[in-house]
Amino acid sequence: MKRHPDTLRPAALALHRQAAAGLALFTAGMPLALLAPPATADGGPQLRLEVSSFRNAKGALSCRLFTDAASFPDGDGARTVRAPIEGAQASCAFPNLPPGTYAVAVVHDENGNGRLDKNLLGVPREGYGVSNNRTYAMSSPKWDESNFTVGAGEPVVLRVNLRY
């Protein structure tokens, strides 16, 4: 016969309440743990991009990490990562980053050709975004508005919204 927790002996009731409190603390911390970037093998900082606002799940997400203004946002960047699109979102990770100033540019590469397709006027035909979500209809994003700093041992999560 099952007993309601309130009818348990005092010692059993105290143990039951402690277990429930521990479970509540464990599950309450889960969303924060899921948002934090995974630890890297050497414990170095990691950047994780969470990208949303996809208009479809075709193709892949291309994420480029830049270390200076010279080639941002259209160049090759220091590192490139491609990731699958799952529903209306996708994420990319850049592990083991040394402390420094960075910017990222992302492209919803719908046709899988590895670049941002543009029309005859130079307007993007595919979704794009940058760190700090500063995009413009008629000009490229600027390094000064898009850069961010990664400190020693500091994991970073950035949310980027695509613009079509």
Provide structural commentary.
Helices cover 18% and strands 29% of the residues. The protein is of the alpha+beta class and 164 residues long. The protein folds into two domains: 5-35, no CATH class; 47-161. It is globular. It starts with 9 loop residues before the first helix and ends with a strand.
Architecture blueprint of SSEs:
Elements: H1 10-35, E1 47-52, E2 60-66, E3 79-84, E4 89-94, E5 100-109, E6 128-130, H2 143-146, E7 148-150, E8 156-161
Write out key terms for the chains shown.
164 residues, alpha+beta, five-stranded antiparallel sheet, three-stranded mixed sheet, 18% helix, globular
Total number of strands: 8
Whole-number count of domains: 2
- Rg for CA atoms: 22 Å
Alpha plus pi helix count: 2
H-E string: HEEEEEEHEE
Taken as a percent bin, the fraction of beta residues is 25-35%
Q: In brief, what are we looking at here?
A:
Helix content is about 20%, strand content about 30%.
